[in-house]
Amino acid sequence: MSELPAGLHDDQTNSEPIVTAHSFLVQQADLEREAAEVLPGKFDECTYDKGYIRQPLYACLTCTHPPSNYQRTKPDASAETAPAGMCYSCSIECHTGHEVIELFAKREFQCDCGTARLLPAGEGSCCELKSTRKMLAKFANTKNSYNHNFWGFYCRCDTFYNPDDEAVMIQCFICNDWYHDRCIGKAPDEGDYEDYICRECVAKHDVLRCIDTTLVFRGVVADGVDRQVEVVDAEENKAENTEERPSKKAKTSACRLLPDTVSQPMDLFMVDGWKNDICTCTGCIKKIETQKLEFLLDSDEIVEPEMDDTRGESLYESAMKKLQGMDRTRAVDAASAYHAMSIKLKEYLRPFASAGKVVTQQDISKFFDEQKQQTH
Q1: Model pTM?
Q2: What confidence tens digit (pLDDT) does each residue in 237-253 have?
Q3: Segments making up each domain of the chain, as ranges
Q4: 178 near 171, Cβ under 8 Å?
């Protein structure tokens, strides 16, 4: 064991493990760095006021209760609730310690945390992040869409996500659900396509089903068995996509869709630039608007949390930087207060050092409780 700091002595008769102040600070710094890698973005602002946007989402399985067919263990006695999703910030500020699952990006979604659909997990928690917090509990986000992902279930096999499963999961560009590669069947190499569109979305939207020249793979499937597979050379398609085409936003009178000759469900893997091949005739534009596929013709960027440049720093480093940025008078006052507290703590710990007694968490808590009482 490394040498103990002043005031902390090893007691070989104590059966409980002893943590030195130095080792505690090192451990704390390691935890802070690990947290910064996993959650690198700022989480001091909820996205609610940004409206319906494409953003990373999370669901809390502690605050919401799924129907019986989506319960993983014995039926929960809690009353069933509606599914709900929250933004990155609320998943951290409001639901720390809860079973939170990551849903990744979804479109046209407004944060539910603090609304009638998902009330705050604790008093004054989530609503503190929202400017309209006093009225939120009366309203729900009527334009949000929900599926089995909000209970942690994915793919057409409808199973709970298992991080230990070796299967690769691929996200559908249209519905944003995730599918196991084994449930898709034959697929091209990852570098040979840009986006995957599941067979359920292909069946639902004929404007996707008949796009020309962009298909790197058409897998026609029925009853879970590959009936027909057409693999188109990816490099050929990339070359064809460089040819000049009409603007994807410009409406045309003639429909450019190929005749739909495929009657069975199929998965599509689309090469780079495939959205330029979407037909923009009056009829297809109307279908796109009716089926809420406008994102195919417009910008479809994900609103990511702002990166926090200070997350890689320890609490000590952050405090020192904050101190240096203060007004000089306030900085001197803060340093003086810290020095006075340091002297009091050393005096408090002196008897422990003299007697060779271990300082416990209860002892430190008692010291700060006494300091609080003296200030009142």
Answers
A1: 0.65
A2: 444 444 444 444 455 56
A3: 48-154, 159-296, 317-365
A4: yes
